[in-house]
């Protein structure tokens, strides 16, 4: 059975001033919903404001033992997506990471490059107005983590620190390769997806490290402007770590992009899309045993479930990343006034890049 279409987030156009005409075809004829068409077959668990992203509260100290969450064996204990009201939370925008200082450039010891410290730790976050705080793993206290933004040819150094507890947030299946019982349940290593990165800094799945350890990676950024993202890459538990929240955006800019005159600042909106499933008390739910694919019933954008965004009647640039476990997304705009009709009206938009 195919999954039905569902809305990711809502664009709400601000009212135009008196006497001012609404341009850009009345900004796609007033308001739109970004829709994701999901093509994957359904599987049961048994078969298989420019503010930081959300209000997050770190829980516990690095390496501290936490009581593991009990895996949810039955779908009747899952949170029903239809029970949550859509478009009640504003879309959060991930904060831009700031360097902690400079360090010598590994490629040129005479030069100094920006140095960032990104700490992976357990947090709590309100993912929806009507849910209690959800336990997650975040980076520098947020999910998604802060956005790393740089320019082509500008190297940076990033220390990825594993400050997670020693007990995993989700159930670890020790029967699969790379996750045997002689390995720590909690391990991490970060990969920049799409980055031209030296091998020793590429986040190889077996280069993981346990809580209390860290790795400093060198990113030369010798590539064209691109929208990339970083995520955990640990052998055997990659799916669990990303599902728990270890992901964020990585943006490379260059002069060619600058010359295009594309919308910037608050008119350039990053959208990290993913799906999740939750228990009735608002906690993450993931199959206790390995499955080939897993799809949730809740759509999250930048760490919020079904958020909305107030926009102006002008062009916007949407920077989209699909961070789902397995979902394939077919995105389009749909007029909010016709989205519930049998044949909703669709709107055109321009795709100017892809990986």
What are the SSEs and their pairings?
Layout: E1 6-13, H1 23-29, E2 32-38, E3 56-58, E4 101-105, E5 108-125, E6 134-139, E7 145-151, E8 156-162, E9 190-193, E10 214-219, E11 226-232, H2 238-244, E12 247-253, H3 255-259, E13 268-276, E14 298-301, E15 304-305, E16 308-311, E17 317-322, E18 329-335, E19 346-347
Parallel strand pairs: 1-16, 5-8, 7-12, 13-17
Antiparallel strand pairs: 1-2, 2-18, 3-5, 4-5, 5-6, 8-10, 9-11, 11-12, 13-14, 14-15, 18-19
The topology string of helices and strands comes to EHEEEEEEEEEEHEHEEEEEEE
Give the overall form.
globular
The total of beta strands comes to: 19
Distance between the termini: 29 Å
Q: Percent helix among the residues?
A: under 10%
Q: Over the alpha carbons, how many angstroms does the gyration radius reach?
A: 21 Å
Fraction in beta strands = 25-35%
Number of helices: 3
Class inferred from helices and paired strands: mainly beta
Low-confidence stretches: 1-6, 21-33, 35-62, 64-76
Biggest beta sheet summary: 6 strands, mixed
Q: Mean pLDDT, as a whole number?
A: 83
């Amino acid at each position: 059975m195919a999954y039905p279409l569902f809305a990711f987030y809502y664009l709400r156009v601000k009212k135009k001033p008196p006497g001012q005409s609404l341009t850009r075809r009345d900004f796609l004829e007033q308001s739109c919903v970004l829709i994701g068409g999901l093509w994957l077959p359904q599987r049961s668990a048994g078969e298989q404001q420019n503010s930081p992203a959300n209000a997050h509260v770190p829980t516990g100290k690095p390496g501290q033992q936490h009581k593991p969450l009990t895996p949810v064996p039955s779908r009747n204990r899952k949170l029903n997506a239809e029970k949550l009201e859509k478009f009640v939370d504003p879309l959060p925008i991930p904060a831009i990471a700031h360097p902690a200082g400079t360090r010598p450039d590994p490629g040129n010891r005479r030069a100094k490059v920006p140095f960032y410290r990104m700490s992976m730790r357990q947090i709590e976050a309100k993912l929806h107005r009507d849910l209690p705080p959800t336990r997650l793993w975040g980076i520098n206290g947020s999910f998604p983590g802060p956005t790393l933004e740089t320019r082509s040819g500008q190297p940076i150094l990033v220390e990825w620190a594993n400050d997670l507890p020693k007990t995993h947030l989700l159930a670890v299946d020790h029967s699969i390769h790379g996750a045997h019982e002689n390995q720590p349940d909690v391990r991490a290593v970060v990969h920049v997806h799409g980055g031209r990165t030296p091998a020793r800094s590429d986040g190889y799945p077996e280069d993981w490290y346990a809580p209390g350890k860290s790795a400093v990676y060198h990113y030369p950024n010798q590539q064209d402007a691109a929208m990339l993202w970083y995520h955990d890459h640990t052998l055997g538990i990659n799916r669990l770590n990303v599902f728990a929240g270890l992901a964020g955006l990585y943006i490379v800019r260059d002069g060619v992009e600058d010359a295009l005159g594309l919308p910037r600042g608050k008119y350039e909106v990053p959208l990290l899309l993913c799906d999740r499933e939750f228990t009735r008390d608002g906690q993450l739910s993931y199959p206790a045993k390995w499955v080939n694919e897993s799809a949730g019933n809740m759509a999250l954008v930048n760490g919020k479930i079904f958020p909305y965004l107030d926009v102006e009647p002008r062009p916007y640039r949407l920077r989209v990343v699909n961070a789902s476990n397995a979902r394939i997304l077919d995105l389009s705009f749909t007029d909010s006034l016709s989205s519930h009709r049998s044949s909703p009206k669709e709107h055109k938009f321009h795709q100017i890049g892809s990986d």
